[in-house]
Amino acid sequence: MNHTESDIFDSYSNDTKETLKELSEDKFDIVERYEAILEEDPNITMPIAAIEALVDLVRHTKVNTLSEFIKIIQEGSSILKSSVVNSISVSAGCDLFLRFVTRSLNDADVESCKHHLVSNGKLFVERARKCRDKIASIGAKFIRDGIVILVHSYSRNVNALLLEAASKNIRFSVYITESRPTGSGIITSRILSEAGIPTAIVLDSAVGFLIQKIDLVLVGAEGIIGTSQIATLAKVAHKPFYAVAESHKFVRMFILSQFDLPTSSPILQFLDQKYPSLPKLNSRQSSLNIHRVNELKMTEEEISNNPILDFTAPEYIDALITDLGILDPNRVSEELIKLYH
Prior knowledge:
Layout: H1 5-9, H2 14-25, H3 30-40, H4 46-60, H5 66-82, H6 88-104, H7 110-129, H8 131-139, E1 148-151, H9 156-167, E2 173-177, H10 185-194, E3 199-202, H11 207-210, E4 216-219, H12 227-236, E5 241-244, H13 287-294, H14 300-304, E6 319-322, E7 325-327, H15 331-340
Parallel strand pairs: 1-2, 1-4, 2-3, 4-5, 5-6
Antiparallel strand pairs: 6-7
Helix pairs in contact: 3-4, 4-5, 4-6, 4-7, 5-6, 6-7, 8-9
């Protein structure tokens, strides 16, 4: 997603615009830096990329007071949150860094505080990058010989967990949802197959058909649509459902329903679409064959009219596999209270 300086400035007050102009004179664009970090390291999470970008913002900031210092970080966080379609993961990183900043500042001079934040911020990022290995080690204990696992879409944490289990010579098989419209489940299948793990890609709509064949479900926290309905099916079928996520993805949001999730534009609208005429079916043809021949696909407008992520209620999650250990979903609130209060 490209963002010009004027696009960003239009979203903020005049005071903020002036501050951002001062920053831009230093040739530092926090959105460009954030996107560059993600590009440089495909394995980095969005919260950690946001924190790294904010650490670089601190390094490039020239202020005279601590209050100006905090204001710059708040404004940088606001820009990052508004620059992505799914702001939840970015919000987790920005809020965590701001909490770290407010706890770290003292009565020392600005330059000393700046040096402290940069050095300790980088240390935090280095530690956070190691969370995935810790999660994989903890979660691999859930994988037993001979079980069949259902994985939704693509998750770096889930992949790391399964690869860790495979490295211990545990034999298991994995069904992977295709995850339309991105098809990211295909990436998961290739990664696991290359490690010698038997895999099969299934249509998102086929989960209800195969749910009785699996032993457990593993999903990540990458902000993917479709997790909620899989969790519902797993609950009905009495199959364990585990979410795998780093603790730095915990975010302070009070979600009660799907429609409490933030969206960048209106969704689920009734669109005025015009379609080309379809061939008529005869008794020897099925709608499935016609679809294959004509390669019918949703338009970009139809895709953008759909949600990009959904909310899975805690009662559908048996446990969270995190770098803090195995957590009951309700423990997330406790961990957030410890962190922010």
